[in-house]
Amino acid sequence: MKFFSDALPKHCKEIFLLSRQENLGNQEITDRLNISKRSVENQITHALQYLRVNLKNFFILLFC
């Protein structure tokens, strides 16, 4: 997973890691980074979409 998350844009990666590795909620991330809650939600959504597509492609290549 680290390999794929390294390819995310810096800000997106930072928010995603705060959410998933440090188990911070959206409001906590908002307070820590001084950005809107909607920005946090959008960045996490973007990261999850990116990871979903790339992990799917990885497994297709791995098992074909």
Describe this structure in words.
The chain is mostly helical. The chain contains 4 helices and no strands. The longest helix has 27 residues, at 37-63. It is elongated. It starts with a helix and ends with a helix.
Strands, helices and their partners?
Elements: H1 2-5, H2 10-20, H3 26-33, H4 37-63
Helix pairs in contact: 2-4, 3-4
Number of strands: 0
Encode the helix/strand succession as letters.
HHHH
Low-confidence stretches: none
Q: Could you tell me the strand content as a percent range?
A: under 5%
Anisotropy-based shape: elongated
Helical segment count: 4
Work out the radius of gyration. 13 Å
Quick take:
The protein has four helices and no strands.
Keywords summarizing the entry:
single chain; 64 residues; mainly alpha; 4 helices
